[in-house]
Amino acid sequence: MAAPSPGPREVLAPSPEAGRRVATSSSSRGGLLWRLRDKQPRLGLFEIDPGHELHRLTCMMQAGLWAAIQVSIDHPLLGPPTEEDFSEVMTQVQEGFELGTLAGPAFAWLRHSLGLAEKDYQASLGPDGPYLQFLSTSKSKASFFLSHDQRFFLKTQRRKEVRALLAHLPRYVQHLQRHPHSLLARLLGVHSLRVARGKKKYFVIMQSVFYPASRISERYDIKGCEVSRWVDPAPEGSPIILVLKDLNFQGKTIYLAGPQRSWLLRQMELDTAFLRELNVLDYSLLVAFHCLHKDERGPGSSLVLRTARSVQGVQSQEEPGAQNRRLLPEAPNALHILDGPEQRYFLGLVDLATVYGLRKRLEHLWKTLRYPGRTFSTVSPALYARRLYQWVEAHTE
């Protein structure tokens, strides 16, 4: 499927006072990782305040997103997105920068189908509180942010990755319609930011898999291989919580009740088959957990039912058995939460934009010579999907 070739439209952004808090400079005490906010329960995160090097950039993002979401509030989509909605590009001009919204109507419809109110989305991403910089163990040059309430995750992307995401967007939306309890991370928006006449920077917004984070004790990024899949844990007593990797998970098991494990394996099979069809690889299964508290042990929270209630919005037209639905716990972010007998698990598939093209094929050849007999991430989409499924099968009971 070819990448969309949208026809851009340029508008002047709404200009309420709340949407114009754009910093014009950062203080001299700023640095990329200025200081850790030890007094706040935001472990592993840095608050982007006026002393932070990225403060001006994130203020622009907040003001731009506030205005962009206001457009979807003022002009709600009346039905499922059309081909034009998937191709639309809207550019809003503000003081000193412009923010582009790609496939805005399609994403607005997707957010609605998830039961996400636009006003809540706007409040989380707008200027009501500072973004948090996420301390990532990723080798990519991307920047990672969380909204002030940690509900939404923002990540910078390269242009070719954005093109891949937009090319796959209609099929992604269709997959979520067919499988409303999919493990795929919910992609909620794709945007560009240009400061003055500089180069465009692209970023995506998605629902955070690790939300709510206050009780999470361990977090992992799993690819089902071993090369470069170890992270030195934070020193004992450190306030920083890192996202660990495959080799750090050795000796651990995800304990689920029988129906929960069956549901998880079936959904992994469905989702990885979909990603294989898109010819993508290098995605990760995020895993986090904490011990269940009394207030989380609600009736039915561990029960899997094919005919259980779904997320608000669009209902699949396929037979219920094909949807692999489950009874969702009464919790925020329920789509990414799975309860075992003693622990609550947070699970989601992220980073869905790496296509197995010529560059990755050459990288596969080089790694085959460089790491004989070892497993690494750059393999064919079919092998990647099968291997990650087998990892889940081997690490669940």
What does this 3D model show about the protein?
With 397 residues, this protein is of the alpha+beta class. It folds into 2 domains: 8-207, Phosphatidylinositol Phosphate Kinase II Beta (2-Layer Sandwich), CATH 3.30.800; 218-394, 2-Layer Sandwich (Phosphatidylinositol Phosphate Kinase Iibeta, Chain: A, domain 2). It is 29% helix and 20% strand. The chain contains 9 helices and 16 strands. The strands form 3 sheets. The chain has a 9-stranded mixed beta sheet with strand order 1-3-4-8-9-7-6-5-2. A 5-stranded mixed beta sheet has the order 11-10-13-15-14, with no helix packed on it. Helix 6 (258-277) runs antiparallel to helix 9. The longest helix has 20 residues, at 55-74. The two termini are 39 Å apart. Mean pLDDT is 85; it is low at 1-7, 15-43 and 305-318.
